[in-house]
Amino acid sequence: MAAVLPGFWPQWVGAAVGLLLDAVSFLVSSVCLLLIARRSPETTRREPVPRRRMRTEIAEGVAFVARDPFLRYFTWMGGLSNLGLTGYGALLILFLVRDVGVSPGTIGVLLMVTSTGALAGALLARPLADRWGTARATVAVQLAAGSTALLIPLAAPGWRVGLFVLGQFVVALGVVAGNVIKGAFRQQYVPHALMGRVVTSVQLVNFGTMPVAGLLAGWLGGELGVRPTIALMAAVHTLACATVLLSPVRGLRDLPTAPRSAQP
After folding, report:
1. pTM beyond cutoff 0.85
2. Residue 164 belongs to domain spanning
């Protein structure tokens, strides 16, 4: 429903009012967050924890990720994948309106349908990991999410709109399922004391490519056209996903539960 409403708002109340309503929704969310109790229950410590320099702690997290083959791979692969995903996503609405000829209301319906792929991915992650193993499931969902992205730029008026729906649905399913499996892997794999610093280091790379992708896609869209840029960005995501065949994950049934240095 959240995907459908933005598609119909411009037709019902105009684009400006639609943007205003969207901004108000964020304001309401901010107020709700401010109303949450700020104090958490105090915990007692037997010994005071020595204060350390922030720079030292950040360096430890970065070094742990850089040294570990699994974390290192998932980090740069995620950044490259997000470069492609965010890049074509930035032009997706323009592509559907101008090139595919979809009305704003229909775009909302299409986005709602394709977004259910993310829900399906979240629900399927555990069964796939249990049945195939976490490593094999990672390979499978990553290859599925990568290859089907190439269907999206093939969308056109008529029945070929279905290529967009199929491609985006499976991309969402594969990406979310992969994120769930890899998130569970990190929870077991990374020492508890380093968890915050490791996750922050990983997310800095994963999310850091996203604003770059938006700028790059906008520039390429003006130079090459919308459809070629979407095809190029989808290919970047596909390439990132395909690297799993050359990664430390290949050949394993399950992802390890601890670094080699920590294994007995």
Report:
1. no
2. 54-255
